[in-house]
Protein: SDR family oxidoreductase
Organism: Thalassococcus lentus
Amino acid sequence: MTENRRVIITAGASGLGRAMAEAFLRAGDKVAVCDADPDAVTAIAQDIPEIRAVVADVTDKTAMDAFFAGLEDDWGGADVVCSNAGIGGPAGHIEDLDFEDWRRCVSVNLDGAFLTCRWAARVMRAQGHGLLLLTSSTSGLFGFPQRSPYVAAKWGIVGMTKALASELGPAGVRVNAICPGAVEGPRMDRVIEMEAQARGVDRDDVRRGFSEGAALRRFVTAEDVAAMALFLASPGASSITGQAMAVDGHTERFV
């Protein structure tokens, strides 16, 4: 069935964002993505020319304003906006962390969400419908040692979701967060390497800890997360708002 929704995804040229972009495109939607990585933007534009892809850093207000203005001129609005951009930030005891590393992590995760949601809220309130999806993490649901910048930012995303759901609900706009667990792929490989160095342990032990800490005893995939995004955008989820939906194989413990 052709949906023909207007879908915008930040950090949408690779990883979770690209998986969501491809899933919405397969569903018959128009899809636009922005991403700070020029190589990733070039790759998705070449691989999937149907997707509108633009280089823009979510922390750059001027770049994001231009990205959104172009879409508003061409599309007249948006039906689904996925605020997906985020970085893992540094790992280590808080007393050993650099302030600029902290600020960069919080900026990408929260400032980027603010700029994205501010535009989407204005457009969706005016049109009387829409869905905002914010990418948080299971780190936004549980405390996690030696990752305080990332955890704080992802808890902030859940808080923003709750606030915006209440703020925009009367206008017919839904707002939900998706909280992935350990997602198989290059980004998770980098996180494992970083945490292994910070904790002084073998990276295989860190990887084992992530998988054994979930009830399903495995990592999830980017496609699992994209499937949740599609569900939340479907008529079957029309009464779901203000929720933080975990896609993590059920986190039981941090090993």
